Task: structure prediction
Amino acid sequence: MTSEVSALRVRGLTRRFGGRVAVDNLDLEVRHGDLYGFLGPNGSGKTTAIRCILGLIRSDGGTIEICGVSDPIRARAEVGSVVETPRFHEWMSARANLEVACAYAGRGAAADVDYALDRVGLKDRSKEPVRGFSLGMKQRLGIARALVTRPRLLILDEPTNGLDPRGMREIRELLKDLCRKDGLTVFVSSHLLAEIEQMCNRVAIIDGGRLVSEGLVATLKQEDQTEILVDLGISERPKALEILEKIPGIRVVGEGAEGRLRVALTGVEVAFLNRSLLMGGVEVNALVPIVGSLEDVYLANTRQEASLI
Amino acid sequence: MMVVAELRKTFTKGSGIAALVVALLVGMLTAAAVYQVQHMEGASINGTSVSELVTVDAVQIAGYALRVRNFFVLPMFLVLGMASSVAGELSDRTLRELLVRPVSRGSVLFAKLTASGILSVITLVLTLVPAFALGALLFGLPKEEVSTQILKVLAAYGASFLADLGWLSIAMTVSLFIHSAGGVVVGVVFGLGLDMALRAFLWALEKIGAEKAAMLRPFTLTYGLDAWQGWSEGWEPGRFVSLTVLLVATLTVALARFRRMDVL
Result:
């Protein structure tokens, strides 16, 4: 059975280690063209789920389809992956490592190796042994190895682990580029919220091996907000406070200098707030809704004791 | 393609290169050593000089070289090579990078075994050719039945290849349980020690009259692995049966283990 709309479809994935359930009945659906974030605290089951998807470890239940293919060996032809810190034959050159990967995939020509090395900016150093590479270069070479067989889906497990801010940014920009320009679907796990928020359009949050939230990043952030915070810049503060006190669903939560106010709206639209102030004779200089962050969604959905960076 | 990739790794790795060098040296040094013994000045036994007593030819030199090659050194290089290819790659996690490719685990093991088998063949050739060539140069060819003698020693090298496959399959199986190349070598040497102790025990039993102890010999590890020795002592089909059983059993265990194994 094929379901080509999905680059990755996981249903009821379960993996136990002894009595501990590491991945618990997990459902995921990654659409073609998504840059999909897989978010969760350390030990939440992200890496275990990815290893199951890639066939590195057995699952105790569930089904996995990649680009509509459920046979695990054929499905892996559609995937390029980086699991944690990529490992290489250190004595061999970057190019030779990629050629070994190509041989194992049964495909990939010199042109593909050139493309992959060029894509990650390592073409000039392709003949050097990997043992001399920095961690950042190895991460990029890992992505090149994932790209070398021209996959349709990239699965990356914590690709920015151990990198400095510049390196993290480079990887983030590369992934965005691969998604937008090369048309790849990217599934990336991380426990770094800001990272996922900055690059992904969809996100799944996993905790204790279970899916706790899933959807478009923008939608999740909106759904999380039971009240909307708005920063106001007004001409007459006393008059404004008088008007706002009379409207049910509006609460003043902070006052700043020079006619600045922060109000919380519950069941009240921002436009209504603006109209009420104008009709009451208060000039509104600024009206800025404060959108909640993915961090708010994450913290609301994961355990308090979970580690978070 | 996978076999080519494995060969590329094998022949750029220290243990692979060392195996080739040692194999080459064994062939050349054996011929040189026999020549040296034969030409020791003043050496005689009961008044007859050693050069008259020790009469060798190229075929015999090739046979001696095979003995030296198979006396622990080369099989251990092959074991080390296989251990680093499986246990080493499991521990440094490079094997994981192969298993995310669209290949079955059985084919990965097959590629590794084939590459190591090719290394074995090359080491055998590297021992045979210089030993035979130097032997022919220094001592000449056999006086009679030249082709029969050559075929006989070639059969010994062929049997030695089968024995190497036995060593490799043992190393591969142990590698899947002990994820450390050094640990595998130690494990194999330890197993070999136990096997020698068992053989000595069976031999002692035979000597004190327990003749049925001889029936247990085919169940010792090295009984099949020494099948190549038949070229000088007379071929024993039982040894080849034992070697085949060993190969089938170890490969079956390795395959079953690897298919079910979690690779981190």
Remarks:
- Chain A touches chain B at residues 51, 54-58, 73-77, 79, 81, 83, 86-89, 91-92, 96, 99-101, 103-106, 145, 149 (CB under 8 Å).
- Confidence is low (pLDDT under 50) at residues 304-309 of chain A.
- The first strand of chain A starts at residue 6 and ends at 17.
- The radius of gyration of chain A is 24 Å.
